[in-house]
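Narrative of accomplishments. A recurring question from our advisory board has been how the design workflow behaves on a single, concrete structure rather than in aggregate. To address it, we present the structure tokens for one chain from the evaluation set, followed by the sequence designed for it. No filtering or post-editing was applied between the two.
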């Protein structure tokens, strides 16, 4: 099983980034997919999730209206479009696969290594 996240980087406040996560080694369209993030000294927190079909999406309150999660089951890819970024969005972002698209890290079976997002002027 591999989850390879990429697309992170340095961006100014108010800018945008698009994260992608390429999955392999499991039945991608049987799993909900989630994005989590972890800032230095803080616990890993839920960002967004999408159900196996892509029909339902869920967002943490701090990112609602700014971030959009989507998936392409033909390409085994889940993406996180991040707009109007804020300094408090700075963190390592992880993609994860779980049977249900839940906001709890413990509900996810597979994790990627993460990609750094830094929002700073």
């Amino acid at each position: 099983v591999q989850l390879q996240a990429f697309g992170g980087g340095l961006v100014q406040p108010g800018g945008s980034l698009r994260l992608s996560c390429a999955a392999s080694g499991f039945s991608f369209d049987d799993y909900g997919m989630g994005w989590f993030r972890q800032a230095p000294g803080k616990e890993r927190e839920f960002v967004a999730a999408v159900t196996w079909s892509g029909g339902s999406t869920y967002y943490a309150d701090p990112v609602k209206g700014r971030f959009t999660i989507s998936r392409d089951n033909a390409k085994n890819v889940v993406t996180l479009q991040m707009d109007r970024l804020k300094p408090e969005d700075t963190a390592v972002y992880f993609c994860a696969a779980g049977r249900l698209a839940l906001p709890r890290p413990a509900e996810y079976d597979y994790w990627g290594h993460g990609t750094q997002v830094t929002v700073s002027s």
